[in-house]
Amino acid sequence: MKDAPWRIAGTPRFGGILVVSDHASNHVPDGIDLGIAPNLLDQHIAVDIGVREVGELMAQRPGTAAFQATVSRLVCDVNREEHAPGVVPIASDGHAIPGNAIDHAGHLDRLERFFHPYHRALGALLDDYPQGLIMSLHSFTPHLSSHPEEVRPWQVGVLYNQDDRASRLAIPLLESEGLIVGDQQPYSGQLLNYTMNRHAEADGRPYLGIEVRQDQIADAAGQAIWAERLSWIANRVAIELGG
């Protein structure tokens, strides 16, 4: 689909692993002016740094595919409820987004162009190719600009809502790698988990929420390490769940 707000890397397969990244792009489509300094588009408020590359590397493995958003979270955050203020944010981590001070018609247009097509496509893919495991892949900043005193020590966080089947398996596997692992850190999946709530938890599909600290995957070397690490962990978890 031309100009779709989503893309697929790799080939989805029945019983495989699907890596879903809601914030994989900092792209702002033509006709939208966010009214912010260009350098902000390279920061965490606009994109989850490193997740596109990690997802693409994981999708090179047989049985794994990646479903990724192709527009910035500042244009439309598809991991928020449809009627939540943050779905078209007017501010993020202390930065005003003046171009998002739009009227109701403009808000609905963002949803029709980006939010609804993204979720329709993800839902259709999961219906057509039921997965052994869905991995929701995000990255987080070592500290928020609005709270620089709050250092986030975790190298990776595992997030979930009520269904923690995959998380309980993944946490010790990550810890066995010598990592500082956050259980429901740097924030709780019971608070921010819209995509997985809708497409996994609501239907009993097994899923794993992964948040990698962005300095871990900011360059090619780190991305390769984490793609390898998350691939074997995802496969181990999927096998355990399927058994």
TrEMBL record:
<dbReference type="Pfam" id="PF05013">
    <property type="entry name" value="FGase"/>
</dbReference>
<protein>
    <submittedName>
        <fullName>N-formylglutamate amidohydrolase</fullName>
    </submittedName>
</protein>
<dbReference type="InterPro" id="IPR007709">
    <property type="entry name" value="N-FG_amidohydro"/>
</dbReference>
<dbReference type="InterPro" id="IPR011227">
    <property type="entry name" value="UCP029730"/>
</dbReference>
